[in-house]
Design goal:
Structural class: alpha+beta
Strand order of the largest sheet: 1-6-7-8
CATH class of one domain: Alpha Beta
Number of strands: 11
CATH architecture of one domain: 2-Layer Sandwich
Strand content: 15-25%
Radius of gyration: 22 Å
Helix content: 25-40%
């Protein structure tokens, strides 16, 4: 076996993690507005703690959603995630719900919504997208595996296959790479899952179930070696979790939502923001561009940066980094190729990726990138890009 050159770690969290609960609620409200009015402007934040949920932010929409409608969306979403029991101290049936959503500032809206003119960016900032040929999904291997673990953990709970699981959980993997960037093995696997009282004094039962029904189902054979460090509920019992264990806020899992720290991040969160907000839509476009560049053979690894000014349609900059893996493209630059083949204004992004037709709660639940059904994960531009290879 090749020698370990570096070890990289990424984590993911389940839907029942308090910050993810907040993300999912924010996107559920966004979806409800956009379903009635696809041109809605939404910036919805959520905070959750013991038996309490508050939504707050700004909405401009022709959709008709009364306070009772918003409350029902919140409660239904909490119950759907799995918090439907008063014993969890966060119960969608009975928790306090506070709605502080209000109209959007006209100072901001005038720069975004300009009638027949090109839509301006909803904020300034820089956004990154990334792709690598490490996995079939063209995602970095560590976050790809960590997310598969948390999604499978949720599946095992929802199906009842492991009946004592509760909604909160985390997975973390440390991946060994050789000098050429090939995955060698797992240095460590960490899995923490909330559970009911039936296994509080029998953690060995929990560990065995996790090994047999989760690790063996998800982790590729051969990656766990005799040297792999395994930590399953390393603090012991984990009965108290979710919003009762820790307060949750929208937008605090931006690394989980993207590339697990493997690529750079501009700092903007996604959930609760409509598609005119380039914090979200431009990150999706940057991923779409990077994935098509890698799928085309133009590069083995690619990072895209886009930047915008509030109220201005065209990006203020475009950067492409192929980390020395780029193909020969002659006199063209990668930036020129991107501008020639992709529409980078907010309207262009929305049209290309059909963002007014997308439902966003699924992204907060299962992952914003690496899910084949999402429009920005398509590689329909790969053939066009491959023509630039000399």
């Amino acid at each position: 076996m090749s020698e370990v050159y570096r070890t990289f770690t990424s984590e993911s969290v389940t839907q029942g993690h308090p910050d993810k609960v907040a993300d999912i609620i924010s996107d559920a409200i966004l979806d409800a507005y956009m379903e009635q009015d696809p041109n809605s402007h939404v910036a919805c934040e959520t905070c959750v703690t013991t038996d309490f949920c508050m939504v707050f932010g700004e909405i401009t929409s022709d959709a008709v959603l009364e306070d009772d409608d918003i409350e029902k969306i919140i409660r239904d979403t909490i119950i759907e995630i799995g918090y439907d029991n008063p014993d969890l101290k966060f119960d969608g049936h009975k928790c306090e719900v506070v709605n502080r959503l209000h109209a959007q500032s006209q100072d901001i809206n005038q720069g975004v919504d300009r009638g027949d003119e090109e839509t301006g960016a909803g904020d300034q900032g820089m956004m990154f997208g990334f792709a690598t040929n490490e996995t079939e999904s063209l995602m970095p291997f560590p976050i790809d595996l960590a997310r598969k673990l948390t999604n499978k953990l949720t599946e095992l709970r929802e199906s009842g296959e492991i009946p004592y699981l509760r909604p909160d959980g985390k997975a973390q993997v440390s991946v060994n790479y050789d000098e050429d960037g090939n995955v060698l093995s797992l240095d460590a696997v960490v899995l923490s899952t909330q559970h009911d009282e039936s296994v509080s004094d029998n953690q060995e039962k929990l560990k065995e179930d996790i090994r047999e029904k989760l690790f063996k189902a998800v982790i590729p054979e051969g990656l766990m070696t005799e040297n792999t460090k395994e930590h399953i509920n390393p603090t012991g019992k984990f009965e108290i979790g979710g919003p009762h264990g820790d307060a949750g806020l929208t937008g605090r899992k931006i690394i989980v939502d993207t590339y697990g720290g493997y690529a750079r991040h501009g700092g903007g969160a996604f959930s609760g923001k409509d598609c005119t907000k380039v914090d979200r839509s431009a990150c999706y476009m940057a991923r779409y561009i990077a994935k098509n560049i890698v799928a085309s053979g133009l590069a083995e690894k690619c990072e895209i940066q886009l930047s915008y000014a509030i109220g201005v349609a065209e990006p203020t900059s475009v950067m492409v980094d192929t980390f020395g893996t780029g193909a020969d493209i002659g006199d063209k630059s990668f930036e020129e190729i991107v501008r020639e083949n992709f529409k980078l204004t907010p309207d262009g992004i929305i049209e290309t990726l059909k963002l007014r037709d997308t439902r966003y709660k699924q992204t907060a639940k299962y992952g914003h990138f690496g899910i084949d059904s999402l429009p920005w994960e398509q590689t329909d531009k790969a053939d066009d890009l491959a023509k630039y290879i000399q």
